[in-house]
């Protein structure tokens, strides 16, 4: 049975008529552009969900910009929308560049590969679990970051982690990344990030303070 809201399930809130809800009032807004193709909707028997396309005027574009109001968002969840899809990337980057005051941001499971062109000046907590990052260099610029979660990506090595050295980063999660199996993994991470207190949910241990010391044993050889 179809729900009363079924015909709106592929729309974002800006497409709905006669409301004044702004972006900073929503913690989990749908920002994904469009939905399934017309052909796919037809075979699903969901033609009723199609929204008639109309020419958008400049006034309407400006009104939408004001309604989105991303500049005043402090906490935002944009997870599970497949925003790394090539069709979605331009719109995602447009929104991320407007998040000048966001402090908590979730982008979980979005097939993201590179956000290095993005700067989040006030972000203190960033969750990008279950994406396709392969390097720390692909992360956005996050000078105020305190809590960063990167579980289930494909980060191969710890190269580039030093970019976070001068941030107030206190907790970092790298579970289920290939770099987790690097020799002396915990020691290397803590030595690179002086403010770090917790790695993968485990507080810093005494053996994490510095990389293991290599002891060279001198041997005396007596020639008779």
UniProtKB/TrEMBL annotation:
Q: Where is the signal peptide?
A: none
Origin superkingdom: Eukaryota
Q: Which InterPro entries match?
A: Leu-rich_rpt, LRR_dom_sf
Which keywords has UniProt assigned to this entry? Leucine-rich repeat, Repeat
> Known PROSITE patterns for this protein?
LRR
Pfam families per the UniProt record, alphabetical? LRR_9
What is the protein's name according to its record? TILB protein
Q: Write down the species.
A: Crypturellus undulatus
């Amino acid at each position: 049975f179809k729900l009363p809201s079924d015909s709106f399930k592929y729309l974002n809130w800006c497409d709905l008529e006669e409301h004044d809800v702004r972006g900073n009032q929503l913690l989990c807004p749908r920002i994904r552009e469009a939905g399934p193709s017309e052909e796919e909707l037809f075979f699903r028997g969901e033609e009723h969900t199609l929204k008639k396309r109309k020419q958008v005027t400049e006034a309407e574009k400006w009104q939408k910009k004001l309604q989105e109001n991303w500049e005043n968002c402090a906490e935002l969840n944009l997870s599970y929308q497949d925003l790394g899809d090539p069709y979605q990337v331009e719109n995602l980057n447009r929104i991320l560049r407007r998040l000048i005051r966001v402090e908590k941001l979730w982008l979980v499971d979005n097939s993201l590969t590179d956000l290095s062109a993005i700067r989040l000046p006030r972000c203190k907590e960033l969750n990008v679990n279950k994406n396709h990052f392969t390097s720390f260099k692909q992360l956005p610029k996050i000078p105020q970051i305190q809590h960063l979660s990167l579980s289930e990506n494909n980060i191969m090595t710890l190269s580039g982690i030093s970019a976070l050295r001068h941030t107030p980063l206190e907790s970092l999660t790298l579970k289920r990344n290939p770099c987790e199996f690097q020799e002396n993994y915990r020691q290397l991470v803590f030595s690179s990030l002086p403010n770090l207190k917790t790695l993968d949910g485990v507080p810093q241990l005494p053996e994490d303070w510095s990389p293991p010391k290599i002891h060279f044993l001198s041997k005396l050889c007596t020639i008779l």
